[in-house]
Records
---
Amino acid sequence: MQKHILLTGASGTLGRVVAPRLSAAGYRLRLSDVKPFPDPIPEGASFVQADLADGAAVSGIVAGADAIIHFGGISAEQPFRPVIEANILGLTHIFEAARQGGQRVVFASSNHAIGYYERGRTLDTRDPMRPDGYYGLSKAYGELLGRMMFDKHGLESVHVRIGSCLPAPTEARHLSTWLSHDDLERLLIAAIEAPETGHAIVWGVSANAASWWGEDDAARIGYVPQDDASRFGLLPEPGDAIAQRFQGGAFASDGYSRDD
């Protein structure tokens, strides 16, 4: 039977990338965002406009779905209050609705949950989180929320620490952090179709030769990346010394006030 997938944040950059791909892969989609969907609705899909801060609205869009891909929320560094409303309150509504309905949640976490590790250090998902701002902090919260929901309620979730998901890498940092659109599709389908996931954390990254990110739960869900940023050769290194020092790049340098 065709799986019915709720995709939140459908009108955002990555939502617009994955919606037609998942539709073409045979999934029946319910798209949702606080903003209208700007593209033609994929065949067999529907769109429901909803604010994630509205718990009742979230319960409504979750009902009847087989799984949730949660891309909704703010995707850039902003002051604390808007991040709370979009990324923490909204995410909690998603998980609470999924707990009641029993749907697996595939959560768009971020490399910015670990952005204050220095470049060149290879991490695994057991390393402590070191968010590089309020945005990264909200993603750390999401991973911990998923952990609690699994330990307390048995709710499965896959937390994808997305790197730099672009058609092609454009700067030196991306040689380590790039996630191709094809690999993003592979990762999401693996997260949906895995027989069991538990609470899984997976680096949202392609098979880059220069990757800073190692052991994770990719094998548990069957994700095998196929692309590699190294084929693009040398790329420019933008940003100040702080951006070039930390894995989070410009997010790490935004508002940085230490005098070292």
---
Amino acid sequence: MTLLEKLSGKIGILCLAGASLLLSVPGTLAQERAVPKNQAAMKQSFSPVVKQAAPAVVNVYVRHRVKQSVSPFFRDPFFRRFFGDKFGVPRERIQNSLGSGVLVRGEGVVVTNYHVIRGGEKSEVTVALSDGREFPAEIILKDEKTDLAVLRLDGEGAKFPSIKFANSDTLEVGDLVLAIGDPFGVGQTVTSGIVSGLARTKVGFSDYQFFIQTDAAINPGNSGGALVDMDGRLVGINTAIFSKSGGSHGIGFAIPSNMVRLVVQSALKGGKLQRPWFGASLQPLNADLAESIGLDRPSGAMVTSVHKNGPARGAGLQVGDVVVSIDDKTVKDPEALQYRFVTKGVGGKAKLGVYRNRKLMNATISLIAPIEDPPRDIRELEGRHPFAGSKVANLSPAVAHEIGMDDDAKQGVVVLDVTRGSNAGRLGLRRGDIVVGINKEKVSSVEQLSLLLQLDTGGWRLSVERGGKVFNLAIQG
């Protein structure tokens, strides 16, 4: 365990995902809902829904070519001294993975989970339809932050079955849903259940926390499969379960269709997902804080800092404001706010409901992409110092969004990558760590960091921020 890991601790989360896609519902009125009134109604079948939706649910097979060292001891300098470098030359091996996916366009556009196709640029992806046909697929967008990926089938002009998006905002707890996928590789399987929760934000499986919870059985292999409503439209991407055994215990989570739609649209417009920039740091409210500012319940996202050039400042937001809604949709915490804000897409404006000085007011915020100020100035650090083997950049809102940082108002130098076995790797540096200071000098830019690392000080006193906490390390020269 590295020094930073001992200081910061480790949190392990088991994520067993199965993706499902949400369908768009025309109009704004919710469907009428009715509880079955008699035994005859209870005997009705989901078969018509399955016949409509199931052909658009596919299997996704991925072959990854990965390099693996012959011996785990190869990185040990003592071992290499006696056995030389040739003993540890990496060898290539094939790693296979299986998941599900959903056809959302007749020309062969498939949505699945990012973690289904994760594994590098040398992946070979094959998609198998329910009718037995198989097609090679090209990855046109993969986004780890949303845990979504978009594929395009090489069908030489063939037309494919597809499913439409529903408006996930029309879902209500208690609505019937079906989960379609290929659990454990046994073949396409349909399970039924209800929506047992909405806007789940404390799950921890992706950067945008706003999941649909269902009790429809979801198991390994369902990742990327469809969660559909009773009209056969996609309402979510089944992506994760809570489980102690590896199987379903009736608590599954799906990515809402409104987020999925945004990712698909971005893929078809050029393969890059642009997210609007809020430009402020946020924190949740507890009961005591809500009471102190005059709110009757701990709901909303409190502004703790505002970027000087960000949209939040342009909208007039101030530290201490509490954002309680976006376009009249309630937000309960910062994760819900981020989801509502991001799914607006770049372009246009959004209306915020803001609580300030015990009064509710409105503000209008622009939906713009994050700026790159200062320029990132990416450098790979080398030399006889603790940061050797790390890649760093100046932290800007654009860089913060790219690496998944929650706080896009921070400034300084951020770690982008760390080479295994390097000084930085042994120190325990990780992607997303912020270099705060070196030998009591505050670090504000990559250029300044490089100059400080060239000084012969005989030892190092480092300050590194991770997860909002600053760790101070002392290293002998």
---
Amino acid sequence: MRVVRALVIISGADERALVGFMWATNAVRHGWVEDVEVVLFGPIEKAVAEGDERFVLWVEQLKELGKLPIACKRIAELEGFEVSLQKYVKVEYVGKIIAEYLEKGYVPMTF
């Protein structure tokens, strides 16, 4: 049996992000795949940093399921919201992290 692991990359701060959060949360909750990792990369980071409830609710659900999303530190630094973003997610440079997940065979899903 093949092991499937998903790398959910959420960038947009619109309804696509909601779909990404919904899929990732349900995949973890219901064991649809072996593992799910969530990376925030782009405009979604600012929305979460500003406390947008549409997205923060999903981040909180993922955290409750033991899956703390990771957000791109460089974008947060450039945009000036790194400190507020850290209240919600882990903030790190994600380029290498994404490459490592891909090398491990995670299937990228972008929203």
---
Amino acid sequence: MAATVRHHETMGAPRTRAVHRAVADSRRGVPVVIAGPHPLIVAPAETVGAEGLHLIDRLAAGPATLLLAPSRAEAVLGAPLGEAAPAIALALSRPLIDVATLRRIADPTLEQIMPQFTRVTTPDQAAAALALGKLARLLPAMVAAPVRAGWASLPLGAGLLVVPAADLLAYPTELAATLHRVAEVAIPLADAPDARLVAFRALDQGIEHMAILVGHLAAQPVPLVRIHSECFTGDLLGSLRCDCGPQLKGAIRRMADEGGGVVLYLAQEGRGIGLINKLRAYTLQDRGLDTVDANRALGWHADERNFHIAAAMLEALGLKRIRLLTNNPEKLAGLVACGIDVTERVGHIIAPNGINNAYLATKAARFGHILE
């Protein structure tokens, strides 16, 4: 039951534990040192407090910067950057800027009263620093400074974690490689009385992903599969802003009618940005942005999902050839790139409800979803 899904060399327990702790420290606002050619001490702008800023200031070997995704930096600087850099560095004053201002810079849903910023050279580990913020499901905005030589021997440096930049960047793929089954049980559903639920967990022992098995898979030569990212507002509350709830229920009904199928229910809320950030994106949508531009305004890509996880779950279930129930060609391409043989894309059209019409139009126009 608990066999690891993929069997290739992974980072190993000590290195993955370091990433897990870096994520936990970041969520608490505790600075972390990112190792690399020029080590950085970093902390998320969203969670760092006065104590964390003081620590960065005292341990810094040079000026501190605020690292932002380019899409967010454009708004802060008030000008288009016209480039695809992994991160943009803005100069911070010393002693460092106050916590409340940092929050406003990081979060476009807050009142935007900000000082003027100067762009400076982006440090080597900037991409890893933003990756850490994203792994923590925080806004990708990080206070960063080069750390002093000998910092670990100083009383202020005692207990600070060091994590390699390469491990932070590799971790999303590593997470899928350590996925394993942890539980399976019959879950009779209104539209699929013979359904079973299989729970998967990765090495970080964090959020679980679920597979809903409908009917008799063995009788299906090429089973129908739906990759469904969790949506608290749509799946559970019945929100009319999206089509997620009807998509989930409709997929289960269709599989029951066909005699079998699988819904992979992935813990990747808001296309991978997390529930809190999705709610922030909704706030920006209420101010006139579409779902793509709202995510970018927060510093995220339009779609941050990790389809290696879906491929690992399919492999664990013994499904190498599938028909994919989706309107999204990119989802199909993502699974194929992970080694899954997708023999057919099966459309999954849900009629607009009068409230989500613009949302569905954005899916078609900007994500390339096939909705007809």
